[in-house]
UniProtKB/TrEMBL annotation, chain B:
Protein name: ABC transporter substrate-binding protein
Assigned keywords, A-Z: Signal
Alphabetized Gene3D superfamilies for the sequence: 3.40.50.2300
InterPro entries xref list: BCAA_transport, Leu-bd, Peripla_BP_I
Signal sequence coordinates: 1-33
Amino acid sequence: MGEQLLQLLFTGLTLGSIYSIIALTLVTTFNVTGILNLAQGEFVVIGALLAVSLQGTGMPIIAVFIVSVILVAILGGLLERLTIYRARGASNLSMLIITIGLSISLRGLALLIWGTETYSLPAFSEGGSKIVGGAALNPQSIWIFALVAVTLTGLYGFLGHTFWGKAVKASVYNQTGARLQGINLNTISFLAFVAAGGLGAAAGVSIAPITMVTYDMGFMLGVKGFVAAAIGGLSNVGGAVIGGILLGILESFSSGLISSGLKDAISMIILLGVLLFRPEGIIGAIRERKI
Amino acid sequence: MKKITMRLKSKLWLALLLVLSLLISACSPTKEADVKSAGGNEPYKIGAVLDISGNSSSLGVPERDTLLMMVEKLNANGGVKGHPIDLTIMDNKSDETESVLAVKTLIEKGALAILGASSSGTSMAMIKTVQSEKVPMISLAAASSIVEPTSERQWVYKTAQSDIVMINKIISYLKKNNLNKIAFLYMNNSYGDNGKKAISAAVKDSGIDIVAEEKFDANDKDMTPQLTKVKASGAQAAIVWAIPPSASILTKNFKDIGLSIPLIHSHGVGNQKFIELAQGAADGVILPIGKLSVAQQISDNDSQKKVLESYIADYSKKYNAEPNSFGGYAWDAFNLLVNALEKAGPDRVAIRDELEKTQGFVGISGVFNMTPQDHNGLKEDSAVLVQVDQGKWKLIE
């Protein structure tokens, strides 16, 4: 029994690492721009699919990772200039709808380029799973956690210790005030989408060895990422990571100990519970922005 | 101020239009095969509904490619008694609702018969429509409930071996190797459910016990929790009813947690993609499968050998890739229909009657002998057991 529980915990951590990296990218954009980017899952998928194509040319995995991150970061910036920037001043709801449109268009684009096949990427480190205390641990999930840790430290460092980071924080707290101080909000929004693209691609390349990748996977990933972010309180970077891990562990234990058919129902009930009894997560964040 | 909002609005509209046009171009890849006039006769219209995108695309894509190849070849050789075949293929995106919409569109366009769909769920969704509109349909999916009970399925046929054919193959393997306690894992959809029903019925009075029963979703990324239960249950073999990618992920997890009991899959993983996605973990997997994947290894005396080799040659020449059993189901369905069309002409009732009279038709999936009680017509001799050995299928019996 002990071994079984440990195994379920490891699986939960693997799933949790995937959900938290996606939640993290969602929260980053939301924090900076106030836009819930529903195309985030598509950035993840396009990053992973690009990596599959690049890997096919014989590039080493580290180069594949970097090139894919750069390309999707450029795509993110480009899309911001073409859509969000042009609709600047529109309500948050319009922005949300624009990102839905982006998400559908990107999915269509991925379908045209890569077709409907499922692809996979090799794991970053060779040699399959390690047995720890009688249970198997997938080393790729450690890589994903490393990525989460690097991103978190990077974000805290950037927001707390750089000029641009402070400008971002200022514009989150008070847009008009920030503008009066000479901070260019358009540049900030642009940077947020560049980061969302790059982080999304990094997440995609890291999770593809476990989840494999198909053109239409982004939506489900986006939903799970959103649930994780909402559990953690949509505007909180650390909360997103904890939310993701919680969600992964919950799913793993509920399918391992109760019933595999009830797994998704249980995670959705938890989401509802969080929203009903601790609404300061999602609703609090939105209210704060409106003031 | 008003001007600005107006400008903004028109731009939004433009953006919406752009998105819409992208959507339309991306999501409805309806293909019409070339109709070359063969002797100038009226073409025979037939329709196909396939799972070309979405979860079961690994089934639908080779089926579409096979159908396009067959129509082209047939029309170049003069069609059916001088009538070219006008085939419309529609993508149901692996979705039940889309499947129904597609079959209705095809029937409205005057299709004489419908081929498809690729998976059990999407096929089941179409049955009500073809039964009430009285249009013959040949499904390419496995579940036996697609053609049973035949009293409610007069218009429905199928070419993939029924689950029970494959399950009997597995049961005899289990008995031969004295494996009496088994775990059964299945996908949470109609393919998995039908497999579960069939195996529960088949193990009754056979001395074999199902000691663990677990399901998972087609989108699941990790089946370790379910496999942990299997490990704790003391099963002597695990049987899995699923298709890739989830079947491949499960196989990887199975190897990762160090389970050493035999892993037996269904014919749903009978394509190279399964092995590829499992990244080496598929070695040792046993499964029942049609003879196509091991055509070179079967005996020269086998009546199917010639048909198999010619299909492999045609397909590899055109697409530069090996065909798989799913393409084979499409090959069988198309030829069964062409045979019926030759005898019946453009008449839905007569086509249905001719399909039911099919006897001794040597196809890719087996030798078909249809009767009013059996709208699949395949027996156990249509399947063989294979094992994955260094990424290749190996005949083991």
